[in-house]
Design a protein that fits this description.
Elements: H1 2-14, H2 25-52, H3 63-73, H4 79-91, H5 98-127
Helix pairs in contact: 1-2, 1-5, 2-3, 2-5, 3-4, 4-5
């Protein structure tokens, strides 16, 4: 699945964020942008997998609806962390304060990247045989 390949590639780059200068505003902005892309890829991958599973919710275009359907289908999707990601993704266009941006980067590094990594591992475990077909 091309979306999943893109998901993994973007996550590989995002996972290196903790090695960057986290005081540099340009770096902070780049990490936030990479998070935005990673979140978009995540819910779109979940949408494809839900479609494969025959879940009718996969026909909606709403990230919130896809995430809700994913909670019911997959035991490895933590509702609170993914809702927090959705909220931060929606709010990030309104972050003008450097401290708020640094706080978001902290959540990305400590909470969101591990959740993205877990999603990757679980998908590879459960769907390895069909990933190339989707």
């Amino acid at each position: 699945m091309k979306k999943f390949e893109n998901y993994k590639s973007n996550l590989d780059v995002l996972a290196e964020a903790d090695k960057e200068d986290l005081e540099n505003t340009f770096i902070i902005g780049g990490i936030i942008d990479k998070f935005f892309i990673q979140f978009e890829l995540a819910w779109k991958v979940l949408k494809e997998l839900l479609r494969y599973e025959g879940n009718s919710m996969a026909n909606t275009g709403s990230p919130r609806e896809i995430l809700k359907a994913a909670y019911g289908t997959y035991d490895f999707i933590g509702e609170q962390i993914w809702l927090s990601m959705l909220r931060d993704r929606n709010d990030m266009t309104h972050i003008y304060d450097g401290n708020a941006a640094k706080e978001l980067v902290g959540r990305i590094l400590h909470d969101y990247i591990p959740a993205f990594s877990r999603l990757q591992t679980e998908i590879e475990t459960r769907y390895q045989e069909i990933l190339d077909m989707l």
